[in-house]
Amino acid sequence: MTTRKLKLSIAISAALVAQVVAPIGVAMAAPQFQAAYLRLDRHKAVTATGGTICAQPNTVGTEADVRITFPTQTGTDFTVNSTAANWTTSVTNLPAGSTAWPSIGATASAVSGKIVTFASGDLTVGTLYCFNFSGTNTLTNSSAGNSLTGTIHTRTGAAALIDETNYATSIIADDQIVVSAVVPPTFVFTLSGNTDTFPGNLDPAAILSTAGRTASVTTNAKGGWIGWVKDSQQGLFSATANYKINTAGTVNGAPSTLTAGTEGYVLDANLTTDAAGGCTVAIDAEYDGATTSAGGTLSANFQPFAACTGTAPATSNGDVITLIERAAIAGGTPAGSDYSDILTIVAAGNF
Fold first, then answer.
1. pLDDT, tens digit, for every residue of 278-296?
2. H or E element at residue 14
3. Is the pTM above the cut of 0.90?
4. Whose CA is closest to 37, among 152, 139, 134?
5. Is residue 286 left, alpha or beta, with left meaning phi > 0 and alpha meaning psi from -120 to 50?
6. Which residue, 342, 232, 253, is CA-closest to 297?
7. What span, in angstroms and rounded, lies between the C-alpha atoms of 236 and 12?
8. DSSP assignment, residue 286?
9. CA 86 to CA 319: how far, in whole Å?
């Protein structure tokens, strides 16, 4: 009798040890991935989103599919489209350091509740694999919340777990930052100088030109800029002689040509720099003297001498126009050392 009791006691103890080591009816947990995550394209509540799945296998096995369980804590965290064909995949623009998930299904193979399954090729332990999912209203963030958990796991063709990892994500009121900035309007206009003297005495036998002064424009006006000129007295005037060498021609959209021995006075505008920018500089036809004896008629009213235009944004980054005065006199032009004129040069950006 004693021997039977001892054997029974040993048998019961062995059974208890076996249950402690492997409790009856409890499955052993699958190994976790070395790394795994779900990256949503949007975290904003009540917003349709795609996403990216990444996982780094930890267990040797022949993967046949990968299943993603979306968070189910409240039952309204995510709305999952039940049509498998709507869950399309891609393997472009993946996170840095990752590899395209091999043989990932072009669409999901099955959708059951909040579990979406994709066919998979065999994975190599230690390699980080990723794929994107997108489609027509496949997944919608429903209600805001933090630490919403789900699962990513891979299975064999016999539906045996290989690797499995729980993940957490979040739904918030808004996931975007609106950035605003102001670029103020700018306009920089300069003249290279405020005097421009003829290099020698005016002579009936020649047409003389000044060295010229430059007008420079930099502006971010989307329509470019325009430059104008007006003349104080439409000629070179001498108070001593009480005489004026009148400007030649009329303002008619074409330059006037001076002749040695015949009085005349004009302004020539030359394009020096058409700077980088969206606009193209053009000299106004009136002041576009093609030779050293031609130029435009000067007026008491502002006349355009150049403009920079183009398809918006037609900005300018430093256009330069050279303005040159030309004069001719006759043999009987009264002598005087005080012949002078004042040109007013202005410009404006076309905002």
1. 999 999 999 999 999 999 9
2. helix 2-21
3. no
4. 152
5. alpha
6. 253
7. 128
8. G
9. 56
